Amino acid sequence: MTIKPLADRVVIKMLEALETTKSGILLAGSAKEKPQVAEVVAVGPGGVVDGKEVKMELKVGDKVLISKYAGTEVKVEDQEYTLLRQSDVLAIVE
């Protein structure tokens, strides 16, 4: 099964957070912050959203920075993804 986003939505996969601090201390699972960098795996077509034309600026493979609590988490075939609007993406990471 694949996810095909509609309108101005994108599907992202969160990148793994580091499990150690810079000084080498291992972090317990509950102590790790939710990662904010993700990879775009699918992009909607854009179009008219709330009466305004939306041009999609993201593409599959982009690494992006998102808000901590943005989007809706979904699980498809044992993989976890987040579905969110393009406007919830803060920046493209290069």
Walk me through this protein's architecture:
The protein has 94 residues and is mainly β. The protein has no helices and eight strands. It has strands spanning 9-14, 37-43, 47-49, 52-54, 63-66, 72-76, 79-85, 89-93. The chain is globular, with a radius of gyration of 15 Å. The N and C termini lie far apart (30 Å). The mean pLDDT is 86.
Q: Please count the beta strands (DSSP E, at least 2 residues each).
A: 8
Largest sheet: 6 strands, antiparallel
Ranges where pLDDT stays below 50 over 5 or more residues in a row are none
Mean of residue pLDDT values: 86
- What percentage of amino acids are in beta strands? 35-45%
Give the strand line-up of the largest sheet: 6-7-1-2-5-8
Order of helices and strands: EEEEEEEE
Share in helix: under 10%
Q: Distance between the terminal alpha carbons, to the nearest Å? A: 30 Å
Given the helix and strand composition, which structural class is it? mainly beta
Globally, the shape reads globular
Helix count, DSSP H or I runs of 4 or more residues = 0
Calculate Rg over CA atoms: 15 Å
